[in-house]
Design goal:
It is a single chain. By secondary structure, the chain is an alpha+beta fold. Helices cover 41% and strands 17% of the residues. α2 crosses α7. The longest helix is centred in the last third of the chain and has 33 residues. The radius of gyration is 33 Å and the shape is flat.
Length: 520
């Protein structure tokens, strides 16, 4: 971290500041390499990394002719883990504006509609799903909120900032606040991109973000070569200027804005890539014996020629050759690699079956539930953190910008955001579905008409008429002239599972009670 007194003026103590910047730069360079590697693995860009790892570990095999080299083989373990673990935003999250006591009225519903339309327009859930996947690989990620001035009215925009591209600035008048919160710092310098000016020089572009101003400049994180533009910060929340940066962390961090943590899943993925590549290369060359020249002089030119399974050996009259071969237990090697993947899944609070290619699939929803219990526990922990970030940290930023753009009324400052994440659904067998329907109707949790309305996307009133007509036809076909009432519990269930419902008592039919129970 470096200190500033003005917008770009460094404080005194240049010798100490230079040492701090130098050491910080070294640490951040290593951090950048590690996190860039993690993002590449998350996005499926593994082949070049694997080829470099093979070159470092097996230099002689990689220096041969084309066709004789060890080729990289990669598995998307990091992607699979992120897809399985980052389930909070798989489906649309319900966001509602409510009064401080949690109640809703016409005003809150109107503002809720405006808010959700704007968030749907920018694909907010998809952006947060991306942030959630990144957090499962590295510790945190930052979202930078702003308004697109080119739109009329200006629309909300959100961009992702990786942690090693963020340089926080401590206030010059001393430390105050939570060191793990980005809002506790006076400003942030965010690296945006590299702009290549010519073949011999590169200029780095940064954004300076504070509560007062957002500026863009060229230079280094702690030195400005050229200021490109400055923009006053117009966003207010309860008459307080807000910081348009929100850090999304995997867990609540203490003591540091950027906790140190290695992406262990990426390192494990990298090791498995190397081992699989070596195993397949061994199989490739040991599947057929490799010819080797038998020449007495070890330094003879012909001894240095590489021969493969597809390349014949040209020998002279007095020369001969033999085959180099060995035996490898491929079955045991593959089993060892699969066991390693299962151990990794267990350590990451997933089911070992998630990383297994040979495990039997769960046959019922209950079996899937039991198989996913560790993942569900981890998800519940994550949702508590995400709910807190959305309601307490991101909402003031989004609300202030939408009020400034005119898409929300200033009255939303007196409202709070309530966020509800979707439950996890497990595929169920027809028997499990029938039992659930029977239980719900038995305890008055639903009706036949409601079930029909949900299945066929019609109103409950329409469903009542349809169910009544269906039951009338069913009983007439069975010789029963007395149809059951439309809302008789259990009537639809009896049809679904292939048995006739028990007749209701006459007083229940005449009373038309919605929760009347069939006679025993």
């Amino acid at each position: 971290m470096f200190r500033v007194t003005g917008l770009w003026e460094p404080t005194g103590g240049e010798t100490i500041a230079a040492e701090v910047r130098r050491l910080k730069g070294r640490a951040r360079d290593q951090l950048a390499r590690t996190y860039d590697l993690a993002i590449d693995y998350l996005d499926g860009r593994q082949e070049d990394h694997c080829a470099q790892d093979l070159l470092e570990r097996y230099p002689s095999s990689q220096s041969g002719d084309l066709g004789q080299r060890m080729y990289p083989f990669t598995i998307p373990l990091t992607q699979r883990y992120a897809d399985e673990a980052a389930s909070a935003y798989d489906r649309t999250v319900k966001r509602t504006l409510v009064r401080p006591d949690g109640s809703e009225d016409g005003a809150t519903r109107q503002q809720t509609g405006e808010l959700n339309r704007e968030l749907d327009r920018i694909g907010y859930d998809e952006r947060l799903h991306r942030a959630d996947r990144i957090q499962h690989v590295i510790w945190s990620v930052m979202l930078w909120y702003s308004l697109n001035a080119k739109e009329k009215p200006p629309g909300l925009t959100v961009q992702t900032v990786l942690p090693h591209n963020d340089y926080p600035i401590v206030a010059a008048d001393g430390w105050a606040g939570d060191p793990a919160s980005p809002t506790s710092y006076s400003a942030h310098v965010v690296e945006l991109f590299w702009a290549i000016q010519d073949a011999h020089a590169q200029k780095r572009t940064f954004g300076f973000v504070s509560r007062d101003v957002t500026a863009f400049f060229e230079g280094t994180p702690d030195h400005v070569d050229k200021i490109l533009s400055q923009h006053p910060n117009p966003y207010r929340w309860h008459d307080q200027q807000i910081m348009p940066l929100v850090r999304w962390t995997k867990e609540l961090a203490d003591g540091a804005l950027l906790p140190s943590g290695d992406p262990q899943i990426v390192f494990a993925n990298r090791e498995l890539n190397v081992l699989w590549s070596a195993l397949l290369d061994t199989f490739r060359f040991q599947g057929q014996d490799t010819p080797v020249m038998k020449i007495g002089a070890s330094g003879a030119p012909k001894n240095k020629v590489r021969h493969g399974a597809r390349f014949p050996v040209l020998i002279g009259i007095l020369e001969s050759f033999d085959y180099a071969h060995s035996q490898t237990d491929y079955t045991a090697s593959v089993a060892l690699l699969e066991s390693a993947a299962k151990i990794i899944a267990t350590m990451l609070r997933l089911s070992p079956n998630d990383f297994s290619s040979s495990a039997p699939a769960a046959l019922s929803g209950f079996a899937k539930l039991v198989d996913s219990l560790p993942r569900l526990a981890a998800r519940a922990q994550r949702i508590r953190r995400l709910k807190s970030i959305e309601e307490e940290e991101a909402w003031p930023v989004i609300g202030s910008m939408m009020v400034h753009s005119g898409k929300l009324d200033r009255s939303v400052e007196q409202m709070r955001l309530s966020v509800r994440f979707p439950d996890v659904d497990f595929p169920r067998t027809p028997d499990e579905i029938a039992k659930q329907i029977e239980t719900d109707i038995k305890h008055g949790l639903t009706t036949a008409a409601q079930i029909y309305a949900d299945r066929h996307n019609v109103t409950v009133e329409q469903a009542q008429e349809i169910v009544a007509e269906n039951m009338k036809r069913t009983h007439q076909a069975g010789g029963d002239a007395q149809p059951q009432p439309a809302r008789q519990p259990g009537s639809l269930l009896g049809s679904l599972i292939g048995r006739r419902p028990a007749p209701a008592r006459q007083e229940e039919i005449t009373s038309g009670a919605p929760n009347a129970r069939p006679a025993p």
